[in-house]
Structure formats: C-alpha cells, structure tokens
Amino acid sequence: MFSTPHIETPRTRREFLERSGLGFGSVALASLLAQAESSSAAGGSASVPHHKPTAKNIIFLFMEGGPSHIDLFDPKPLLNKLAGQTLPDSFGEILTAAGESRSPLLISKRKWKQHGEAGTWVSDWLPEIANCVDDIAVIRSCWADGLNHSSSVCQMNTCSLIGGRPSLGSWVTYGLGSENRNLPSFVVMQDNRSSVVNGPRNWGTGFMPAVYQGIRLQEGKQPIPNLNNPEGVTDARQREKLSYLKSLNQGYARQHARQTELDARIASYELAFRMQAEAPEAVDLGQETAATRKLYGMDQQETSSFGRLCLMSRRLVERGVRFVQLYHGAGSKWDAHSGIEKNHTQHCKAMDLPVAGLIQDLKQRGLLDETLVVWGGEFGRTPMSEKGDGRDHNPTGFTMWMAGGGVKGGQTIGATDELGLRAIEDRMHVHDLHATILHLLGLDRMKLTYEYNGRPERPTVNEGEFQTKLVTG
C-alpha cells in the first residue's frame, strides 16, 4: 500500500499565494491537470473550430536543407541562356548566405515536361509526383526572411526567426485537439538519425504549456521505444505504479505551479498507458498488403525508409492524429552548396515515390479530401552558382505545394522572376502559409489566442492572410 506523499509547508510568500489564495492555487492546478488529462496532446476530444474546416488533419513533408525550386517545379529558360554569366545589374544588390552573389549563373540540367490536365511543369527529377499534379497546387511564389538554416527552419515551424514561440503543430493541437485520446495529437518523424536543425524546438510549445508539444516517433522496427510494460509487469501493476507516481508529481507540482513541463510529463505517462493498447497496432505496417507497401516504395532500398514513414503517416491520420510532420533529409541533407546534381538526384529518388504513394493512397481511401498534405523546405536555392556546381540559400523566392484538405489541385499559383531569384506575383510569405493552413483546418489566426505575459499571442504574430486561390483556383 502506497502512502500519500508529504507536502512541505510554504517557505515564501509567493509559494503561499500559489498554494493557498482561498484555494485558488490548487483550483488552478487541478484545472490545468484536468485540461492536460483531456487535452489534445494527451489524446483528448477535439475542440470546436472557428469556422467550417475543409481539412481535419495535416501531413507536413519537410525537405530540410532547401530543395532547388528552379530544378524541380519552376523552369527558367533564361537561366540556361545566361548560364556562365553574372547576374544582370538590373537585379540590384543581392545578399546571399555564402556571399557569392556575383558568382556565374548555374545551368539547370533538368528535362522539363508539362503534366496533368492543367499542364503543370515538373522536372525529370520527380517523375512520380508528376503523375499526381492534378491533385496538387504548386505555389511558386513563397518567400521568407532568414538566410541561414537555423533561423529559416525556425520560421517555417514557428513563424518567427527567433526561437521561443510555439510550433505550428502545437498551435493546431492547442486549437483543435485530437480525435483519438489513445494517440498523440502531434507526431514528428525523421528519415535518419542526424539531428534536425534546432532539434525539438521545431516541434516545441514555446511559451504555451509543454503538454501541446509534438511527440517524436523513431524510424525503424520500434517507432515507439519503451512503450510496453517490462516483462512480468501486469497492466494492473503498471496502473498502480503510475497512480503513485502521479500523486508524487502532483504534490511537487503544487509547490511549482509554473512548471508546465511537469504537467506535460504527468499527461504523457497517462497517454503512454493508453497508447499501450492502440499505438502498436497503429504503427504495425505488417498489416498492410504487399501492393500497398510497394506503392510507397518499401520494396526498394532507396525508398524504403521514407516510404515507411509516409505509410505510417497515413495510418496515423486515419486513426485521428491531427498533425504529422515528416523530415526528409534530416540534418540539412538537401543543402546543395556543391554537387547539386548528385545531392538532388539522391534525395529526389528517396522521396519522390513515397510521397506520390502517400497522395495516391490517401485518395483511393477517401482520406485526401480531409487530409492536407504540405510539401516544402525552409527556402529554395539561388540561380547563381556556388563552388562551381552548387547553389546557395534563397529565401526570396521558392516553391512549396499543397494537396487535399479542400485545396484545388491542378493549378500553379504565383511566380518568381525570370531567373527564379525573387517571388514577384501572388507572393506568399511564411505567415501567409501558416494562416492558410490554419484556415483550412477551421482556425482563424486572429481568434486563436493564448494569453502570455498579459497579452494575447497569436500563431502568425498578427500577420499573414488566407490565400483564397488555393481553394478557388
């Protein structure tokens, strides 16, 4: 029989007010713990959106390092015509990460072809995604503010160049919750063991309670390590241990009411206990047919790793997980400062078939209508060369695309200039991208607020607009 943990008496006036105040301190803590118990991050019921959504969940395919838009989705004939020359003076002064703005323009060796009923341009590096373009809206006019990977990856995840703000997945979790209380609402996976730039900060909660942060699953045979009970420990015994641990944590939490990480830990223990019944089935790819596994490229060495993650993503969203984020090329592997031909050939080969398989699988199962798929990196690449055969970072103009979730496919939105350096038409900043994603999920970026330091904080820092062309064409 476990005894009730001893709770020390208050040592300071602040502790006294936090823990007494006519009971308000304990009431607040009980409320927070109750919220964590039923919240989205702990697998609780979904919240009511601000308006009718067109998407219920999202799969964000993050190509870390910055894929070259002018070699994938945005052909520039003038680039090849002027290859070897410096950037025309009409483009003005250019600031690049490596400081090679006056380097010769680098030819694109790609073969281009129009695909689908709308004639969307896609290069020969992406033959499988090219077959899905009638379900895809290609956005050629994206732009951001950061020059380096750290600030740019941070902005693409949090709308800010500086760390400390909640990630997009955390805002979605906070606003909508999950439809399955036995699974996390926000899941993150990556294709290799290298560290994503900024690490867990990319799926963290910033100033919001830690209970809304993403939960990372591992690639491999055991995506959820240490989930099952130790050998010889029954569910009843595990429940008893968790109850005692919870009482200890709650006792400590009453003395440190501002430490939301502890509340998240309490909720995570409860979620882990519930996950023991459902999570193993959710990530068991052995239940899929050979045809489905082949669709994702799991029968090929180059595509098997990311194919498993894409297939797992489909299984998670169909079971109520709200936000799934996949990192391809984790560790800035798409960062082709040199040898872009070898770099992008390898990474496109590893990613193309699994992503196309995901779109096709979602569509044939009737899930694409309610699942928003987003593809892109933190920035694009420059038309100017670097180190002779590579391209530098380019945040002033790059391509992303969206499919499903109410997005009208078979269209190309926006444009960059004749060399692909800057977005010039229907420009879509990262703030606009986040505002659009939230809108499609039924969340108004101005109504979704969290009180912090006496002021209402919003996910896009009061900027960004929903891009209606994505749904109207």
From TrEMBL:
Ranges in a coiled coil: none
Domain of life: Bacteria
Pfam families according to UniProt: DUF1501 (PF07394)
InterPro entries: Alkaline_phosphatase_core_sf, DUF1501, TAT_signal
Name of the protein described by the UniProt record: DUF1501 domain-containing protein
Lineage, opening ranks: Bacteria, Pseudomonadati, Planctomycetota, Planctomycetia, Planctomycetales
